[in-house]
Amino acid sequence: DAKTTQPNSMESNEEEPVHLPCNHSTISGTDYIHWYRQLPSQGPEYVIHGLTSNVNNRMASLAIAEDRKSSTLILHRATLRDAAVYYCILRRGTSYGKLTFGQGTILTVHP
Amino acid sequence: SAVISQKPSRDICQRGTSLTIQCQVDSQVTMMFWYRQQPGQSLTLIATANQGSEATYESGFVIDKFPISRPNLTFSTLTVSNMSPEDSSIYLCSVLLGQGTGGANVLTFGAGSRLTVL
């Protein structure tokens, strides 16, 4: 599986935007870029995913570089509830439930 | 989306014993998965629980240690056998649903079962 690289930790202030980067230089053409987050004492939850184009949903936006070798998860206005570990994962189109989780980015949100 | 219930939510177990974790889903799903999260670590897939056939295990995980049942489309169990302190982890059940744009499938996870082996 192609590997992703994320910063170990990031900090933000409440109500400010947060940009969480992810590098995936060995991504293949059939790899989807998925983001999950894990809040304390909970299982991971799906945030967003994309293939080539930028994506928006009610939780976040995903900006994908033109060469697809990097992406950025954007939380438009961070809240204290957004404090979590954020995982950037490459999912091959045929891999179904097998997600290879890296160490993720620990996001701390300050009031 | 699906709602996943796991039991027990946590337990403390003695070395050498076995514990069965239950995963109940509120809708029928074809694919269910069991993950492990060791203390301070990320998640690792243990196996895919297939309804009507044996589970498919990932490298490093074997059926004798982690037997899995999948009697129907809403339920699965994972047993951690002959436990040692190294088995202290959070065990998570997940299901595959079609969600999101473009129809790409995503996983929904249960809250996990935290096992501590003494």
Map the helices and strands.
The complex is a heterodimer of chains A (111) and B (118).
Chain A (H helix, E strand, L loop, with lengths): L8 E5 L4 E6 L7 E8 L6 E6 L4 E2 L4 E4 L5 E6 L8 E9 L12 E6 L1
Parallel strand pairs in A: 1-9
Antiparallel strand pairs in A: 2-7, 3-4, 3-8, 5-6, 6-7, 8-9
Chain B lengths: L3 E4 L2 E4 L5 E7 L5 E7 L5 E8 L5 E2 L10 E5 L2 E6 L8 E10 L6 E5 L3 E5 L1
Parallel strand pairs in B: 2-11
Antiparallel strand pairs in B: 1-3, 3-8, 4-5, 4-9, 5-6, 7-8, 9-10, 9-11
Describe the overall structure:
The complex is a heterodimer of chains A (111) and B (118). Chain A is mostly beta strands and 111 residues long. Chain A is built from no helices and 9 strands. Chain A has strands at 9-13, 18-23, 31-38, 45-50, 55-56, 61-64, 70-75, 84-92, 105-110. Chain A has a 5-stranded mixed sheet, with no helix packed on it. A 4-stranded antiparallel sheet of chain A has the order 2-7-6-5, with no helix packed on it. Chain A starts with 8 loop residues before the first strand and ends with a strand. The model of chain A has no long low-confidence stretch (mean pLDDT 92). In chain B, 0% of the residues lie in helices and 53% in strands. In chain B, strands 2, 4, 5, 6, 9, 10 and 11 form a 7-stranded mixed sheet that branches. The A-B interface holds A 32, 34, 36, 41-46, 48-51, 55, 57, 87, 91, 93, 96-104 and B 4, 31-33, 42-45, 48, 58, 92, 94, 96, 99-102, 104-112.
Task: Name a few traits of the molecule.
heterodimer, A: 111 residues, globular, B: 118 residues, mainly beta, 4-stranded antiparallel β-sheet
Summarize the structure.
The complex is a heterodimer of chains A (111) and B (118). By secondary structure, chain A is mostly beta strands. Chain A is built from no helices and 9 strands.
